[in-house]
Amino acid sequence: MKLSVPRRADFWSAVTILGYVVVILLLILPLFNIFKSSFIGRTTGRLDFSNYREFLTKPYYYVTMLNSLVVSVGGTLGAVLLGVPLAFFSTRYLIRGKALLSTFAILALLSPPFIGAYSWIIMLGNNGFLRNSLASLGVFLPTIYGPFGIILVYTLQHYPFVFLLVSGALSTVDRSLEEASENLGSHGTKTFFRVTLPLVTPSLTAGALIAFMISLADFGTPMILGHNYRVLPTMAYNLFTSDIGDNPGLASTVSIFLIMVSTVVLFLQRYAAARRKYSSTLVNRPIVKRLKGWKAVGTHLLCYFIVALSTLPLAVVVVYSFRKTKGPVFHPGFDLGSYRQVFHQVPRAIFNTLSFSLLALLLIIVVGTLIGFVLARKTSIVSRVLDPLLMIPYIVPGTVLGIGFVVAFNRKPIYLVGTAAILILSYFIRRLPYSVRSSASILKQIDPSIEEAAVNLGARPARSFFKVTLPLMTPGVLSGGIMSWVTAVNELSSSIVLYVGATATMTVRIYLAVLDGYFGTASALATMLLLATGLALYAVNRFFGVRGEALVG
Amino acid sequence: MAAIRLSNIEKNFPGVRALDDINLDIASGEFFTLLGPSGCGKTTLLRIVAGFYQQDRGSVFVDGKKIDRVPAYNRNTGMVFQNYAVFPHMTVFENVAFGLHNRRVAQDQIRQRVERILAMARLSGFEKRTPDQLSGGQQQRVGLARAMVIEPQVLLMDEPLSNLDAKLRIQMREEIRDIQRQLGTTTVYVTHDQEEALVISDRIAVMNAGVVEQVGTPWEVYKQPHTVFVASFVGHMNFIEARLNRSREGGVVEIGEERVRTDRPLELGGVGEEVDDLLVGARPEDVEIGEGGPTPGGAIRMEATVAKSIFTGTLVQYTLVTDSGISLLAERHRPDRSEIIPEGKVVAASIGAERIHYFDRKNRLRLELGGGQ
Question: Tell me, what's the pLDDT at B229?
Fold first, then answer.
């Protein structure tokens, strides 16, 4: 079914073409270059399978694949174990301060994971204050370096995905279904496992998938906490950028394996979700029960404990940003020395982060809205092919895309390496699919008959778009845009591959400061990012009335 | 005000013929209803007139002018949508003024015309409200006012009342009818509600599976349904399978093993040779329930047991079942308490000769009773 507006179709055809240009230039070309390069042997310089042979036969390489799976699966399981109970308790029982809990959970989620990583070093590192005080009580913890620490960070970073998606689903399970189950003789626990949990499984797997994909693609945490525990993204990065013995071919091969793993997992989740898809009409909202006595205390303690644990690293960062430092060493007392340090040494990084992220945001909003409109309203074979192509960024980790950009844009006709543009374009393309999806889904909620009414009343298609459709889309598009801005500001994994001295962003500076042991500077920068993230979150909530839950996924 | 002519309209969607050779003539100022079940093509036809769909064959004429190539925004039709489609980000005034702005009407003119139409739609004082502050009925009035204010050549209404509750629906349909009469705008109205169609329309086109089965006034459609479909879709009709027994004098209708007592054989004239199998039809209100006595000429009469009786307030509805399993619905209006027949009682059900409808069982078309007495 299509609207018969033949003459004005030109504009939307142009948008479709623009969509293809973007996808081909910024996704297909870089990925094709990686693909090609993965088959170029280092010694031979010819097309062969030597890189793949090396990756699959040398334990030094193939063990990274297993390591990646271990920490990603571990982190995902941890996220589910924390997220599901928290979701259940906070949607079914009266928990005081629930809004605050989810705000802190979202803040933990949106902060860059490597901040958490090095915060845990401060607490549980070899000389961490928490480790020392626990040791004095006779409690000895395993080392934070290696898989344990990485899984801990992933768990606390990513459980909010599961928590938010599952609580969203739980609060829309019709009460009558659970009542029917009880009426048929299943008591509480049985009802939960036989009725409630299966009904929210699609959301649960969706949350777990996001947790897994982000863990798999994460670069900062294993780089800071990994030491000798290498995973696929750090391996790809090291092989690609190492001054001695860099091996772009093998780095590409590692990237290909990374993409393969995420693709397989994505399709597994899609398959599982498609098999369990329930449509139901929500008639009776679930009741929020008020617990009494030790049960009430217990659920409150559990919920607070989970959120507090994930907020702890952020609090540590903020506190440490105000501590007195002398070079890399902390001294007793507090001052603003670290902030002074930041403004003296790396003011450029702050400017870069702001300008790059805002320019990327502009591109994301304009291009995302237009392509979203084409996908939602101008359905044709041409636009239908564009849709799955736009999925590519979901499965391509930032590090891999960064490598692809360097390989693709380091020679004529497109020479972008070392420029600000390459960073902006990488933020843009990585976030574009989210923007396209969200504006398409906003459009699907706007009844087409509203636009038809405008046309019927004599408005030409362009006028009906700008007078009716666009104003209705604006709140959703802007709030989605602010979220894109937050991710761009906190982005590390592609920036680290693409930056040069003059284009280093705040996250890059944090990472470098942590490596050099300048925790004070890192904390100050990280606190500024947290503040920006918090403000953005507040703005979205305040001005668009969008609840945090809606921002995920 | 304009006359509409639809000629040979055909529209296909993947795998379905949505409209098959539709020919309709709608007079200027007429309230014309497209009535049919969901999926019959009525909305598709309306959207073709509005210009939202392009037909695969045929043409739409407004006042004799072909408008097939006129884009939707230039057609000067006013459409009222099922889900109101009121612009949620505009006030009532802005909603109604939208079409006038598109037509570059002067500001003071706009104000005047909007106020006038809002008064007519009983929305005066609501100018500054936004749609979320309005009830469903008020939103639909905004939709109506917005479509009327542009003084369209044709008013198109796509099930405008189906999202409203029953009481409001009845009230609104009368308001719509009144406003339409006042302004005299040619109106094409789509509904699946047969009662609504009967009440509101000058003429009705009953549609089924992409074709028009009958066009006529409400009276004609109800009293002389051309097809079995029309008979059963507009109101209820009892159907009894019957055979035509031919003799030299004419045809005699036989209903199974049932003893149909008639004074004279039923005679059907003008019936083609090929018709043997009939459907005998009767409206529930035409089925008389009596105790016995003589049967008037040409009537059908059979013994039946009262299987069920339902009291609806204004009438009692009986389900009657004969020994051979024929089931009949009968209605008695304004019953006295003493008249109510208990379930299980055997009664005589009869249908007067002039109240019987005959249909060809094979092609489902109406057969006219003719021939001598």
Answer: 96
Q: How confident is the model at residue A550 (pLDDT cuts 50, 70, 90)?
A: low
Name the residue in chain A with its Cα closest to that of B158.
A449
Indicate the burial class of B72 (C-beta count within 10 angstroms; 0-12, 13-18, 19 or more): buried
Chain A residues with CB under 8 Å of B79 CB are 452-453, 456
Chain segment B137-192, per-residue pLDDT in tens: 999 999 999 999 999 999 999 999 988 888 888 988 998 998 899 889 999 999 99
Q: Is the dihedral of CA B363, B365, B369, B370 positive or negative?
A: negative
C-alpha distances in angstroms, A337 versus A327, A349, A350? Answer: 10, 18, 17
DSSP category for residue A145: S
> A471 vs B52: CB contact, 8 Å cut-off?
no
Specify the pLDDT at position B239.
94
Residues of chain B with Cβ-Cβ distance to A452 below 8 Å are 50, 52, 72, 79, 81, 85
Q: What percent of chain A has pLDDT over 70?
A: 94
- What is the reported pLDDT for B261? 45
Question: What ipTM describes this predicted complex?
Answer: 0.79
Provide the CB-side half-sphere exposure for A14 (13 A, CA): 5
A-chain CB neighbours of B99 within 8 Å are: 457-458
**Nearest C-alpha of chain B: how many angstroms from A535?**
27
> Residue A295 — pLDDT band, cuts 50, 70, 90?
confident
Nearest C-alpha in B relative to A473: B89
What are the chain B neighbours of A381 within 8 Å (beta carbons)?
A: none
Q: In terms of Cα–Cα distance, which of A500, A493, A446 is closest to A469?
A: A446
Q: Does A1 touch chain B (CB under 8 A)?
A: yes
Is pTM beyond 0.80 here?
no
Q: B17-24 long-range contacts, Cβ below 8 Å, gap at least 24?
A: B17/B210, B18/B44, B18/B210, B19/B44, B19/B45, B19/B48, B19/B55, B19/B210, B20/B210, B20/B211, B21/B58, B21/B211, B22/B58, B22/B211, B22/B212, B23/B212, B24/B205, B24/B212, B24/B215
pLDDT greater at residue A495 or residue A113: A495
Residue from the list B73, B85, B156 with its beta carbon closest to the beta carbon of A450: B85
How far is Cα A524 from Cα A338, in angstroms, rounded to an integer? Answer: 6
- Tokens linked to B196: 């609504």
A59: amino acid identity, one letter? P
Contact B371, B353 (CB under 8 A): no
> How far, in Å, CA of A63 to CA of A147, rounded?
13
- How far from B217 is each of A477, B180, B184, B189, B283, CA to CA, in Å? 51, 17, 18, 14, 18
Model confidence at A4, pLDDT cuts 50, 70, 90, reads very low
CA torsion A314→A320→A322→A325, rounded to 10°?
A: -160
With both helix axes pointing from N to C terminus, report the angle between B136-149 and B107-120 in degrees, rounded to the nearest 10. Answer: 130
Determine how β-strand B277-282 pairs with β-strand B238-247: antiparallel
Model pLDDT for residues A522-542, shown as the tens digit of each residue: 889 999 998 998 888 888 777
User: Chain B closest CA to A481's CA: distance in Å?
Assistant: 21
Kindly report the average pLDDT of chain A as a whole number: 85
User: How close, in Å, is residue A466 to chain B by CA atoms?
Assistant: 13
Confidence of residue B272 (pLDDT cuts 50, 70, 90): low
The tokens for B17 are: 């013929």
| Alpha-carbon gap: B243 to the closest alpha carbon of chain A (Å) | 47
CB B155 within 8 A of CB B33: no
Which residues are CB-neighbours of B71 under 8 A, at least 6 positions away? A4, A5, A7, B51
Phi, then psi, of B211 in degrees rounded to 5: -125, 155
Instruction: Name the 3-class secondary structure at B187.
Output: strand
pLDDT at A547: 57
